[in-house]
Every structure is written in structure tokens, then in C-alpha cells.
Amino acid sequence: MAKRKTAARKKVEGPSRREVITDLKATINKRYKGRGVMMSGDEYEAPFLVLRRPSGLIELDIACGGGLPAGGLSELIGKTASGKTTLMNQYFRMQQQLQGEETMLAIGMTEHKFDKGHAKFNCGVALPMNRREITAYEKTYRRVLTEVERLKMVEEIGIFEEIGADIVDTLYEIILDCVESGKFDIIGIDSWGAVLTKVAQEAEMDARIPGGAALINTMFVNKISGLFAVPQDGQMNYTTVLGINQYREKIGGKRNMRAGDMTNMSVQGGNALKHLKLLSIYLDSAALWKEVKGKNVRVGKKIKWTIYKGKAGCHDGAAGEFNLIYGKGLDIEGANMMAAMQRGIIVASGSWLSLVDSSDGTVILKSQGKARMAADLAADPDIHEWMRDEVFRYAIEEEGAIVNTNYLPPVDG
């Protein structure tokens, strides 16, 4: 008996994996709108690839991939009086120079009031002094300011806000609101290592409080990471949060100053800071001496920096130094002059130094001695900027460095 033929079943094709993922993505983005997002590569951008925050110190900026990364946490770590606050002020100053009246800055203080005098007079940050501060300045220096000097005293470029609170819980909530707004360029925190929590405020003096600063800092950085992860109204957050932190040497530990070696250091603020920050710059300092009339006089500090942790376009291990001169601030021109000399962009002939255009051999600037060259660079910002760009070009082409010089926010927001 012949077998009856059965009709072949037509195979029904289901949705492809690509289609399933596309539908899933639409569902996720609708369900978690404002709290979570799923994006393909061409739908999101890494803020640190689009924008950096320079210090103006050429070697440090090269080591940082162009500057502090936008859209994340960075940290300045060091012992007491190692130049952390001064370097933070230098980032503020550079932002004001780059963006002018569009600059939006804030500083959250956990320790004491922000030192406007140091920031303004030693670091060049343009923020206003009030009437009583101006009167006190005149009494201190025993002279009446001219009208031009008074205008300089109240000068402010852009917006500079100080954030204060009785407890760090409140301070961090305010900072989170500022970060969420997405309108600030740099928000500083001074510091992660010295905080008073609500629990500690209400406790007796002899109480032992588990967690301490580590617990509140962990909560803060976890919340702030969420703000950077999810676009607000379709825009990524370009704010740079720059915190100051202290280290303490472990009891009985031997100090080791090798680049990036923090084996015998105890950094304050909890382990969350170690993992969630994009960049960590470790600072240390030594006395800077100068012979004056046959005597050695301490005139400032020699600040040594090391990239302790580097992500987002830079790597750890790079190191360098710059000088801080008492009463004047950072010796930016001196440090940048040395960076140019090391690459043959400034050439020495006897006591004379020449800044040379490598494309045609033209001498752009000629000065006798390093001090004179540094002063001439300070007097002509355009030449100084040209020299910086030449050093960056050399570092990229000859040293294989990655130097992102996108220093202004994207025009579309």
C-alpha cells in the first residue's frame, strides 16, 4: 500500500535577534525614562572625549590627556600644604580664561569658608570681594585703593558660587542638585576627608560611629555616578566634579615617594572614591629656596605631581613638578618654559633662550636667562599660547601622546 504524501509545513520565521533587541530597547527606554536608558554607540557620547578642563600646566595637561575629563569625578590627593587648593584654583582660573562670562563654577566647603583672598590675589581667580573685605584690605596695606583697583577687587568672570551647610548630608544634596542641573563647568569639593555627618553631629563626643565619612561619601559618589550615566532631556552632563582629599601615613609605615606608590598611605573617604573617580592626581611638596643677599630664603614650594589613577583618555604613572611662589602663586610660565626646552622648542645658546618656530626656523621670542624668558611669556599671552600648542603638537607627533584640546563645550549644548 502506497504511503500517503503529507504536505510540507511552511516554516514560520520569527523576529530576528536585532528586531527583538530593538523592541526591548524601546520598552526599556519607555519604562525607565529619566532613571535608566539603553543607547547604541551613535546615540550617546562619552563627555570626556568631547570636553576637557585644562590646568594651563603643559606637562600636567599632557599627562591628563588634555585636562580633567568632563562628565565625571576627579580628585586631588596629598598631604597637608601640598598645593591641592592652589591647583584647584588654577583649574577655576583657566576655565574663566577660556569661557569668559559663560563660566559657571561652584565650590562646596566641608572644612571652612573658601579663601577668596588666596584664590583672587595668589591664584588669579576672578571673584568679587565685598565692601568689608575691601575696607579691611585698605587698612591692612595702609593705603586707599584707586578706582581702577576697586573695580578689580569686585571683578567677577561668569558665576562663582560657594556652597556651605551645617552637615555634609545637606551639602552633598545641594551639590547633587547642582550636578543634576548640568549647567556648571566645574564643581569643587574641599574636602572629602573632613566631613561632619548628621549622625556624628547628634552623637556624644565619645561615641564611636561605624562607617563615618566613608559611608556618606560612598552614598554621594554612587548617586552622582547615576546623574552622569543618564542623559537629561537628551543631553549628556559635562560637569567636572573635582574633589580634594587628604592622606595619612600609616602608623609605623615607611614613606615611599616612588611614582604612584601609595602603599603606606591611608586615603580618607571610603573605597567608593577609589573605584568611581576617573582621574586622581597625587601631590607632594618640598621647600623652594633662593639665595638672597648671601642667605638662603624660603620663597615657595616645589610641588611634585603623579597621576595615581588615570582613565578616560589618560593613564597612571606620569609625573612632573612645578613651583609655587609665595605671594605670587603658581609659576605657570616657568614650568611651561621647561616643557618647551625639553622638546627643543626653546633653544639655549649661552645665557640666551630662543623660542623657535620649527616649521621655518623663525625666532618668535628671545630672552636672556630663564627668569627673563618666563617674564616675557607672562607679558605676552598670545606667544605663551602659541608655545603651548607647539609643545602639544610635538607631544602628539613625536611622543605618541593623546592630547585632547577640546576646551569649550559643544555649541549644541
Topology, pairings included?
Elements: H1 17-31, H2 47-50, E1 52-53, H3 58-63, E2 68-69, E3 72-78, H4 84-99, E4 104-109, H5 116-122, H6 131-141, H7 147-153, E5 159-163, H8 168-181, E6 186-190, H9 198-202, H10 212-229, E7 240-249, E8 265-267, H11 272-276, E9 279-292, E10 295-310, E11 319-325, E12 329-330, H12 332-342, E13 346-349, E14 352-356, E15 363-368, H13 370-379, H14 381-399
Parallel strand pairs: 3-7, 3-9, 4-5, 4-6, 6-7
Antiparallel strand pairs: 1-2, 7-8, 9-10, 10-11, 11-12, 13-14, 14-15
Helix pairs in contact: 8-10, 12-14
Q: What can be said about this structure in brief?
A:
The protein is 36% helix and 23% strand.
Distance from first to last alpha carbon = 80 Å
Instruction: Report the order of strands and helices.
Output: HHEHEEHEHHHEHEHHEEHEEEEHEEEHH
How many DSSP E strands? 15
Largest sheet: 10 strands, mixed
- What gyration radius follows from the Cα positions, in whole Å? 26 Å
Using the alpha-carbon principal axes, give the shape: globular
- Helical content (DSSP H or I, runs of 4+): 25-40%
- Unreliable spans are none
What is the beta-strand fraction? 15-25%
Structural class: alpha/beta
Number of helices: 14
Mean pLDDT: 88
